[in-house]
Design goal:
Distance between the termini: 44 Å
Number of helices: 12
DNA sequence: TTCCAGGCGTATC
DNA sequence: GATACGCATGGA
């Protein structure tokens, strides 16, 4: 990692990272873009620790972590932004496949964020049969109520009625069930992290409102299980249209990272035939 | 007005 | 085990 400390800021040189790509590709829901003198500036959190981060230009690979410490960089943000992984190497692997190659070319600055497991669980319960702007709205209201993103312990004893200000609809009862099962140790995320993928998925599915897809999202985004491959409506189309015989071999072990490139590509790239409705 | 959104629970066969 | 349907809410 290449960085220098400049007063209260840290200047980070980092390849294969683009803030728009990474923070707006549907894996995280509470990074907000804010006006600044730089190309892009976002404010977000890992658990309760805030970060304001700027990307200086589109392609320079220079970032400013504002008003932070070397300790937070090394103990939080280095892991959160997955900086130990060589995404250049990963993308060279993916380029064996023509679809993935296009996806990487379209948004090569995507990185898989290592997010908090509890936040991922709550967020992706909210995500079901929902659209991304509205997911962000519900999560924003959740954070307002609790003064930051709540832990499952913070929400202990909550009822669906008490969650009605979220306007989460039928998902409120799922959130309450999730909180209750965690409180009663019916599900233990720390144990699930250590389980084989199939077993971990089944365990998460004990929570009402957590099915195969949400469970895979929790494993991928909240537990850094890069072999987890969540299939939503978009990825279902990708599988049927591009990979009728299964994923290419170059994704072995990192199917989840490939999924993230594919998801963003089909949803937002005008050149992708699946993007155009019909 | 109708359709759809990072799905899932339930009923039915 | 497979399939059909309802579900809260809000934007297009």
């Amino acid at each position: 990692m290449d960085y220098t400390i400049k007063g209260k800021d840290i200047i980070l040189c980092q390849r294969d990272l683009d803030l728009d790509n990474t923070l707006n590709c549907g894996q995280a829901f509470r990074w907000e873009i804010v006006p600044s003198e730089h190309f892009r500036t976002y404010i977000g959190h890992y658990k309760r620790t805030p970060l304001k981060i700027s990307q200086q230009d589109k392609d320079s690979g220079i970032f400013i972590l504002h008003n932070t410490t070397e300790k937070d960089l090394l103990s939080i943000w280095y892991d959160y932004f997955d900086l130990s992984v060589d995404y250049g190497e990963l993308k060279r692997r993916f380029s064996e496949d023509s679809v993935l190659s296009r996806a990487c070319q379209y948004a090569g600055g995507i990185r898989l964020l290592r997010q908090d497991a509890e936040e991922s669980l709550i967020s992706f319960i909210i995500s079901q049969n929902n659209n991304i702007p509205r997911i962000k709205g519900i999560i924003g209201r959740l954070c307002e109520i609790y003064g930051g993103f709540p832990s499952l312990e913070d929400m202990r004893g909550v009822t669906p009625e008490e969650l009605s200000p979220l306007r989460a609809g039928f998902r409120a009862k799922y959130l309450a069930d999730c909180v209750q099962k965690a409180a009663e140790n019916e599900i233990q995320l720390d144990r699930i992290k250590e389980m084989p993928l199939d077993e971990a998925q089944k365990e998460l599915m004990k929570i009402k409102g957590v099915g195969p897809k949400v469970a895979m999202c929790v494993l991928l985004f909240g537990m850094y299980r890069t072999d987890a491959y969540p299939v939503d409506v978009w990825i279902k189309r990708v599988n049927e249209h591009f990979y009728p015989n299964g994923l290419p071999e170059c994704t072995q072990g990192v199917q989840g990272i490939a999924q993230q490139y594919l998801f963003h590509y089909v949803r937002t790239c005008p050149e992708c035939e699946l993007n155009k409705r019909n």
